[in-house]
Amino acid sequence: MPPHFVPTKSGVHRVACLALYRSLVRKGSQLPIGEHQQYALRQVIKNLFRKNRKIQSPSKIVEVLNLGYQSLDTLRYASSGPLRVVSELVERLTGPKLLLKEEDSKHTSQCQLSLESTKRRKNTQVAPIVWPRPNTPLVLSRPFLSISGKRRVPTLVNTNGIPHLRFKKPQSPFLSRIIRNKIVQRQKRFDRSDLLKAEIAIARAEDEWDHILSRTCKIEEDNSVRWAKAHVSARQEVKAKIQASHIKNTALGRKMDNIVEMEKALAEKEQGNVDTSHLSEVGNRRVLSAGCA
Question: In 168-202, which positions are buried (b, 16+ CB within 10 angstroms) versus exposed (e)?
Fold first, then answer.
């Protein structure tokens, strides 16, 4: 299974964020401004880091870090630039309200309240959302002809009709989340189909009632507009999505089965149990079967 990136458990990520935070605070304290303005600037930096500390997406983390480095370059330029540039920068970052003593004390009390609420939330443990590391190769790009170390042959596992390859135990939290989301989505479609099936009978009764009214009141009936027609069309659309998902999972299972067989052949070749000709025959046969699928 490819490695996964959990920001809250990465020591390198923590060191980089702390280094950026300290550099921003240090450069902000070197600006030729008043004490209250420096305090307001430190509060802005602290609040931004506290706001973004729970980001889990790797692309979003890269975006926020790049913004922090750009802000650090701006502070470096402002510390050695004219006083007008420094004043405009501080006013743009902190805002006019944060420069007042009363607003500073109010902001401090709000931060204390947020810290107390954070301490209360620590009692409820929530599993962190994990993401695969950037530039991780796709599973269907296997098998790799050359690897470092011993080759691990994956196992094809079928979880409620969803195929996936298992390389080792315990199973990756990222893979478990993907499987769980697919199962929940499929169950919602089944529930939607059953609900529409029950509503079709009610819709047909409504159509019958409209027919009785039009016949009794001698009103021309519009046959193109039916209650049941919309429900039947919606149910057919849901069933088509369920069938398409089943076909996709079947094709994915066949591709993964081919990957398992080719991994086995490569593992046997690396152990010296078979010759190269047998490996090429197995590979060609699997490639042809994958192309037919």
Answer: eeeebebbeeebeebeeebeeeeebbeebeebbee
